[in-house]
Specification:
The chain is an alpha/beta fold. It is built from eleven helices and twelve strands.
Length: 289
Amino acid sequence: MEIRLAECAGFCFGVRRAVDTVYEQLEKGKTIYTYGPIVHNEEVVRELAEKGVKVLENKDALKMLPNCKAGEESAAVIIRAHGVPEEIYRILEEKGLECIDATCPFVKRIHKIVSRQSEEGNHIVIVGNPGHPEVEGIVGWCRGPVTVLEEPLEAERFVLPNDRKICIVSQTTFNYNKFHYIVEIFEKKGYNVSVVNTICSATEERQRSARTLATEADVMIVIGGRHSSNTRKLYEICSEECANTYFIQTLDDLRLELPKTVRLVGITAGASTPNKLIEEVQNYVRINF
């Protein structure tokens, strides 16, 4: 039986940069907060919590932190890879807290696009999960009307309330094919549409390599946090190609019963999945099957 890892799997550039930023600040002996979990992987967040990193779940928690007076050393608040609304930066400045920005550069680019486009009077359409922190952050940089939608049916039902131009962007981890299908729906409606494909190139590569492997595999294992949007997308993609697809967060979740007819087990992992966890799963399958 062959065990094969997808060509693109595990930590992406933005996530690795954010996690490394936290460890760098820990080495300086500072009191560290992250605004929201630094990444959507409970194992990573748990390890950081054991080292003293505290998570601020929302802006109310941020406002509860004591203000820092001039000349005093403040706690450091790290902005996670997903980014935050513009309002959060203002609160940090007003409180005098040190802000260390680990927003993924690809997400930062979207903030600049929607800010500029909405200032020009355009209606912003964000294709993504409305409850995801990255999307909530993008919404927080829009200066005018904004619509968030996730499904083609929502695009079909969309009615522009005026004659504004529409600027369409995407959550960086959205399904590449689904995004383009939704864009086609808008274009067929005859609206004046400007499309900026803001899906991260690493996301496209990860989805493409997962799909390619899933078409060949008898069993697929997708590793990632249960709250990770990009990992759920990988699971959807792999499930379309391979009926025996498993979504696990840690090795403890893996309950495999492989018949002897299985020739190929494929493994892929979301952008917030550390390499050591991927290696643990690979070794477990190799040793036990």
